Amino acid sequence: MSFLLTRKIFARQKAFGAFTRAKSSFSMPFSSFSSVTSFKAEDLIIEETKAPKAKPSEDHVYEFGKLTTDHMLEIDWDVETGWGKPLISPYHNFSMDPSNSTLHYALECFEGMKAFPSHDNSKINLFRPVENCKRMNHSFTALSFPEFDNEELLKCIKKLVDLDREWMPWREKHSLYIRPTGISFENTLGVKPANKVKLFTIISPVGPYYPAGFNPVSIYCYTDFVRAWHKGSGDKKLGSNYGPTIKPAKAVAAQGYDQILWLLDDVVSEVGVMNFFVYWYNEDGDKELITCPLDGTILPGITRSSILGLSREWNEFKVTEEHFTIHDIIKAIKEDRVIEAFGCGTAAVVSPVKNIGYNGEDFKIPIKEELKSGELANRLFGKLNDIYTGKNQFKDWTVEVEN
Questions:
Q1: With contact defined as beta carbons under 8 Å apart, do 144 and 233 qualify?
Q2: Which segments of 134-249 are extended strands (E)?
């Protein structure tokens, strides 16, 4: 399919409302919320555990999400009384009625963020945490949950991280994974807005996504299922966006692939649960880093935004947020114009792609064998890790957790 034909397809899709081109920026595509109705960090109650869990050994090999720290943050909301006081207490189970509407109608959303040890192991840093709080507010709004002040939530999370700082694996490329979550706490079988909501946050110590260095993935264009669509919820971090992708992921894994390259009418959107980039020579002969725009079908990833920001700051190649199809990629591969491709997200940071399967055929993506990635992916990974750990500063992206 030619680039011109691709343009015509998009014009037709736009006419039918299939895609909405969105202006992009560094920040999230929604504004910060501030209201006197929000909970306040100054009201935070802290109840420290009297029975700390046994902590891992120094050489422990961490599996993602397997361990949790000693404490958790909870903030309850009621339609009659509004937000209650934030509470940090020992990690514990919830008691949930079988009629709870979260269990029946997936009234749930979450975030994923990390706290990193500084390069000299003297501090703990968060990476652009307010952006996660903004995005969670966006998800709350989609579920008709109450909004909150982003800065107040961040202050509470910082207190939680500080309290459990002894759980930090003080090793290179290790971190504390932070999982803020919002659920309905109303007991009803009625499909209606929740009159009670619980916002809670737990922490899990994690190791590097690739313990032995990069491990480039093979991805497959699964065309029997659509992950997200225009005017849907693909740009929110709702649990209901993730559960239905497990079966397709299992199907492609059985064929020997690692991830799914999600398509919408052949238009490339995300890879697995990550944003997706292609670095190529475009049809004008220019070096270009391209990714899908924030059109409502993809998650506005903080790592995605950061990669765009760094690349534009370097000003060494064209940086584009524009729709492109799997046929554009295949054509570029056949013409030796693709330099590399990769996914990105909080967990992996950068995930190099070595192969794309489509319609029964595999198409190889160049990989530098000595790096097990492309040069740009390797450079971005290194630069982001330097920012995470405070070795290098960039704008105000690194936020220290005070002790």
A1: no
A2: 175-184, 196-206, 217-220
